[in-house]
Amino acid sequence: xxxxxxxxxxxxxxxxxxxxxxxxxxxxxxxxxxxxxxxxxxxxxxxxxxxxxxxxxxxxxxxxxxxxxxxxxxxxxxxxxxxxxxxxxxxxxxxxxxxxxxxxxxxxxxxxxxxxxxxxxxxxxxxxxxxxxxxxxxxxxxxxxxxxxxxxxxxxxxxxxxxxxxxxxxxxxxxxxxxxxxxxxxxxxxxxxxxxxxxxxxxxxxxxxxxxxxxxxxxxxxxxxxxxxxxxxxxxxxxxxxxxxxxxxxxxxxxxxxxxxxxxxxxxxxxxxxxxxxxxxxxxxxxxxxxxxxxxxxxxxxxxxxxxxxxxxxxxxxxxxxxxxxxxxxxxxxxxxxxxxxxxxxxxxxxxxxxxxxxx
Length: 360
Hints:
By secondary structure, the chain is of the alpha/beta class. Helices cover 50% and strands 19% of the residues. The strands form two sheets. Strands 6, 7, 8, 9, 10, 11 and 12 form a seven-stranded mixed sheet that branches. The protein has a five-stranded parallel sheet with strand order 2-1-3-4-5, with helices on both faces. The longest helix is centred in the middle third of the chain and has 38 residues, at 111-148. The two termini are 44 Å apart.
């Protein structure tokens, strides 16, 4: 949304007067409409950040406009200012505040005062935008930390079960558990960086062998693959290195994608993992042949939105934002993720990532 003002009034003289004042404010775009046009159009078509309502056109239509604005646009990053006469009753002002009015400009007043109030409105919007951005960063870090730590915890639980059943050597399982606890520490440290800054600012990249990352990701989920008797078909044609944060790429992207494929695959199923090159980038595709995904969920994930958690084929629970975490990570650093249905089965989940490739 641009820094813009919409004046709502049925008084053409009032509109012309305020137009001269608002257009003299730098970097702010002014436009106006009347109450009838505002009511007839959907408020989503108005991109303005500050709405100025002329109370002199009527109390009831002003309240109705405020209510519709709040209902359709909410309170976030929008300021509603009401132009009122100097003798308006205090209870009327309280009623207007109830329906979303943030400030009042009483007339008559000077252009300098009006400009000051408008500047204050946009400063408040700017501060609110910063707070919303910070809150989103905190939520993303919390989501990623909660979700990604579940993978090493699953490893610890799986190898603990193996140790109890004596299916593998105890020494091997202990090494896997030690590695998993170290990964948890690394993920916590990474999330801590995100909490104090934007993810793109804390991104630490290096050239890493793609095949090795895929192999390590498969090892993370080997116990789950074995439990569901799922076989992997690998077709790794892209040979080289990708520039990424290996920890985040492995846990926030590859692990989330493979985990999702395992979760929705049936017993004795298969999962295809393929890599290929496109110019100076690499394409990674993970396909399962499980229960599939609804069109609405595909649209949400491709639109970088979280979805409600769905139980897996053997009762596996989840958080509902694993693929969204992968999407955010990739989009932050020039990659992309796309979900498609598998054909001809119609129950495949296909995801694509693009990264630069270096062959040494």
